[in-house]
Amino acid sequence: MFENLQDKLDRAFKTLKGEGKITEINVAETVKEIRKALLDADVSYKVAKSFTDDVKQKALGQNVLTAVKPGQMLTKIVRDELVILMGSASEDINLKGSPAAVLIAGLQGSGKTTFSGKLASTIHKKGRSPLLVACDVYRPAAIDQLKVLGEQIGVPVYTEEGNKNAVQIAKNAVDFAKKNGHNVVIVDTAGRLAIDEEMMREIEAVKKAVSPSETLFVVDSMTGQDAVNTAKEFNERLNFDGVVLTKLDGDTRGGAALSIRAVVHKPIKFLSAGEKMDALQVFYPDRMADRILGMGDIVSLVERAQEQYNEEEARRIQKRIAKNQFNFNDFIAQIQQIKKMGNVKDLLGMLPGIGKALKNIDIDDDAFKGIEAIISSMTPQERENPDVMNGSRRKRIAAGSGRGIEEVNRLLKQFEDTRKMMKSMSGGGAKNLMSMMGRR
After folding, report:
1. 135 and 74: one domain?
2. Cα 318 to Cα 321: distance, rounded to the nearest angstrom
3. Cis peptide before 99 (omega within 30 of 0)
4. Buried b (16+ CB within 10 A) or exposed e, 173-205
5. For residues 245 and 334, what is the distance between their CA atoms, to the nearest angstrom?
6. What is the DSSP string of 351-416?
7. What gap in Å lies between CA 187 and CA 97, rounded to an integer?
8. 9 plus 28 within the same structural domain
9. Quick one: pLDDT at residue 123?
10. What is the H or E stretch that residue 342 is in?
């Protein structure tokens, strides 16, 4: 997401390269390029014009320090204005109530059901007891999908086979939640291919029946400006509390993320990418602005790492490293932790300056596949004691894993180098795993 916008903004800032100071002429030229970049990203003309007018006004009002180049100053101004445009600060979901009801709305295909599962999973991990409610009575596949997701994350799903009254199902689900100790009810409603009166009347009635503490509108970010227009119509009828942007891992230009707050005056609360149940992020305007401008997002990267961090396991590994006992079983466990953090290219893109370098590089989500295949072909003894490796064992491992002997040799050498490095500098394993992945 935002790769094309990032490139075009870079080109716009280069207009000021070599300039000794900000002037009305060079700012006007740069601002014109910024506006074009926003329009190409499917940001509405009204929002793009208002944004660039604010940037221009603030740029011309700046007394540029001699230590700061004009291009750097304008980058900061644009960054600050992007934060304001997208909402200034993150906003929490409201889960007050007993039980707290969360109503999920949106068009068919926007990702409502998948998001409902992700939200339930996130809430469940925080120690609450959610209940998923299947109120899409028109698509049996949606009900089946919710059941599969519920089983996957260990959250019960309330359904009523044969009942086509979504309002009654929602009411009964709330009663069921009260009786069975569920303190959050997540209601997945029906979507349509387009907005129609019947759909809007039904979801209004469901909202009235459950009195949700939070109503979230789910938007397919790949639909760009159409998503913003749909959000506006839904908000006029539902007065929802926040927006969820889905499919951010697709070929999206980013117009919805940049426009929606300014148009509907409601915060973006979550970002959703991919089908994995842990692929849900709280929306932070400042972090998104940094990513748009290629500044990375170290805070989110650290937070993802902390979510997967196991203190007891870390202490165990540290002891093994100190005793030079770190083996392939420990190594594969570390790989699994990194994989749980998400898409590898996405993770690397959070490092400042790395996103642009990775633009045209294809990093498979199964980037560790070759390493895992080689380790899986080792015997328990070989995994526990890498020092027993000899020529015949290496040939057998290569044949069993379907990888070349040179790849096996390279992994063994890199593993030994990593083991030595980790012994001398505890805690540097993740960086070396990434390095090994890139050179496999």
Report:
1. no
2. 5
3. yes
4. bbebbeeeebbbbbbbbbbeeeeeeebbebbee
5. 31
6. STTHHHHTTT----TTTTHHHHHHHHTS-HHHHH-GGG--HHHHHHHHHHHT--HHHHHHHHHHHH
7. 15
8. yes
9. 94
10. none
- Token readout for 267 is 């915060």
What is the mean predicted confidence (pLDDT) over 15-36?
80
Q: What is the rounded distance in angstroms from the CA atom of residue 282 to the CA atom of residue 268?
A: 9
- The boundaries of the domain holding residue 368 are 302-438
Angle at the Cα of 152 from the Cα atoms of 151 and 154, rounded to 5 degrees:
60
The β-bridge relationship of strands 214-220 and 280-282 is unpaired
**pTM across the whole model:** 0.68
**Lookup: tokens for 409:** 């040799």
| Assigned domain for 190 exists | yes
pLDDT at position 428 = 45
Alpha-carbon distance of 68 to 63, in angstroms, equals 10
Tell me the Cα Rg of the chain.
26
**152-159: average pLDDT:** 95
Q: Are residues 274 and 318 both part of a single domain?
A: no
| Better-predicted residue by pLDDT, 287 or 204 | 204
Three-class SS state of 180: helix
What are the backbone angles phi and psi of residue 188, rounded to the nearest 5°? -90, 110
Q: Give the CA-trace dihedral at 309, 428, 334, 362, to 10 degrees.
A: 110
Residues 6 or more apart whose CB falls under 8 angstroms from that of 411 comprise 371, 374, 436, 440
